[in-house]
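A brief tutorial aside. Many learners find it easier to grasp structure tokens once they have seen a single protein encoded end to end. The record that follows does exactly this for Ferric oxidoreductase domain-containing protein. Read the sequence first, then the structure, and try to relate runs of similar tokens to stretches of the chain.
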Amino acid sequence: MLIRKWLLVNTLTICLIVGWSFYQGSSSYYILSAKIISQVAFVLFLVNVNMYFVLLLIRKGKDRNVKVKLAKISKKMMKYHVAIAITAVGLIVLHGSMMISVHTQQLQNSKIVSGIFAFLVLTILLFSGVLRKLKASGFRRKFHYRMAFIFFVFVITHIFIM
């Protein structure tokens, strides 16, 4: 039951973001393609963030069968965690460069500024991931999780800011 709610929240989040993007509209196909690129990056980021919840369900869950299934899923997913992250970062850089090239005269715009701050938080998140990969520790693991959720907040702010 908890997994269904979790999947529902993810689906609703993606639908809300795509819907908001269409509601805002686009002045050109170039901007529309930049938005679509960012939405793909967001979905990839969401897949990686969901690893935290999979691992949490494994630790805190009560049903052994569910825990075993989730452990098998997480084992497969963790192999692609870094590749998914690198792909998402590449798409984010492409999105940012496309949007800045269109809005060169409006770099003080709240949308651009929030995107730059989100990117700065992303660099810290990536650095924490590299540190965690080099030498895993409880502090580095928690720091990486915290940075992922802080980045999530910055991204949501960037998406919904006018």
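Self-check: The radius of gyration is 17 Å. If you spotted this yourself, you are ready for the next section.
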